[in-house]
User: What shape does this take?
Amino acid sequence: MTFEFHGSGVFLAVLCFLCIPGAQAKPGDSDYYMGFEAGGLSGDFGTLVDSDLYSFQVVGGLLASNYDVSVSVPYLIQKDDPGYTVEGLGDIALLVGHTLLPKQADGISVDGSVMLKLPTADESKGLGTGEFDIGLILDINHQWPSFSASLRAGFINTGDTAVDSYNNSFLYGVSFFRMDGRFGNYLSLEGRTATIDHVANPLELQIGTFYALNLNYMLTANALIGLSNSSPDLGMSAGFRYWFD
Amino acid sequence: MKTIIALTALAGVFTYSLAYADMSRSQSQMMNAQQSSQRMGSQMMQHDSMREMSRMMVQMRDMLRDMTQLMDQDRLRDQTQMRDMSRVMAQMSEALRNMSSNMQQGMMSEQDQDRLQQQVRDMEKAMDQLHKQLDVDD
Assistant: This one.
């Protein structure tokens, strides 16, 4: 029953989002990319087990003036403290974003996004819950010539399994982006309510950068620092992005 | 009898340890699943950050494209200026040649004529170098 609710609700939401007037692609108005990222997270995420999670993910997407679509397909290797190692395809994440308020004269714009987590990870290995999750997120952005800031708030409807019931999660965050030569740097503080009971709410600080080698190739790097017990202690990732002409 | 008791106890310990391993494995899987549910929020925020980063990358690409266009425009302007200069020098050289020819028919010392001709040759040499430079730039 849960599956049906999530499945139909999710697809309906994504379909509605795509049908918002103006969301359709205009010829020559979109930038397409593909990329690869490798990284690791370590910590207990508020559970009783410490684990190291290594991820290798292919990312791709397109950006148009008033909407964007992105997808990430991860391969996960998880090593737990007792010595178990599991690996396999992770949950595929799909995000569809749409500009709800185009950039105004004062530089303010508002974006809304729907994110869908497909239960592609093997739940018997614990690499995923085996259920759909759907999230909604709202970004209020302010842009200056080479600097921008975003305030974000969101909600995730976490799919319950037959055995476990997870809490839905509220998200909040603030981020800053700045261009410096061929570098683009960002800093963000992100928090959310925990999906499992009796643990602290996760809070994380992220620092990231990208470097444009040329019009097509860009390098990316990101570091994550957990600020609460239920966040990963530390995370790092690096990758590259290819932009199609 | 003792052997049977010992074997039974050993089998019991073995079964218990297997059951314990199973239990701890399934507990580990449950913890993994819980961690996975916790990660969704992080994954979503990262995706959202990735979207912001992608927008910055698009801006960066636009800036790089503009820079390339400006550099091309600068190069074109420099080449046009050099061609104009070369044209002016050719006209000056022609004027000097005419002047030299006229002077030869009038009252002019040989020393002055030599100096004038040397100036014409220097100017022609400078003009040749300018033409060669233009060919290299093209």
